[in-house]
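Duplicate of #3305? Posting structure anyway:
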């Protein structure tokens, strides 16, 4: 489910966030895996507060493959940076001022990092996006297969 490189990368990320007391939450496929999904893990997705994202970009500067900037496509409108650590892609976005497009409508995500659940995964104590929030997000993106898989994990 999670490769050794994914685990090494996750340890580096979380130890840095903990050392600098940066609030975060794990999202995306890794969050699904933590709740019990068996999706193949591609990258690591993390959200951090707007007030700390520039600091995060500096802390991980040596791994940057896409500098912190606004990203807009057919699904998303958000601030994020992309990293490559141990051959693993990592995307870190700011939790606030983030939007998705659903049926052409721009919808603000109401992410509240204080609601992240603290869960143990592979010996790491992680802050993870609540399962119901992931389901809501996947529904807005019309990712029906993901939604049905996640609902089974409730």
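Output from current build:
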């Amino acid at each position: 489910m999670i490769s050794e490189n994914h685990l090494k990368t996750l340890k580096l990320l979380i130890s840095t966030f903990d050392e600098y007391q940066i609030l975060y939450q794990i999202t995306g496929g890794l969050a699904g895996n933590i709740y019990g999904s068996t999706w193949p893990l591609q990258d690591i997705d993390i959200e951090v507060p707007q007030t700390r994202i520039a600091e995060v970009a500096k802390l991980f500067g040596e791994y940057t493959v896409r500098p912190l900037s606004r990203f807009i496509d057919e699904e998303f409108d958000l601030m994020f940076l992309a990293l490559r650590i141990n051959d693993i892609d990592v995307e870190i976005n700011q939790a606030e001022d983030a939007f998705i497009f659903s049926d052409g409508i721009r919808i603000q995500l109401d992410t509240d990092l204080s609601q992240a659940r603290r869960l143990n995964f592979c010996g790491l104590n992680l802050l993870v996006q609540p399962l119901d929030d992931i389901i809501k997000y996947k529904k807005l993106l019309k990712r029906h297969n993901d939604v049905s898989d996640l609902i089974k994990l409730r």
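Confirmed duplicate; merging threads. The beta strands are 25-27, 44-48, 64-72, 76-85, 88-94, 99-102, 105-108, 117-121, 124-128. The longest helix spans residues 4-19.
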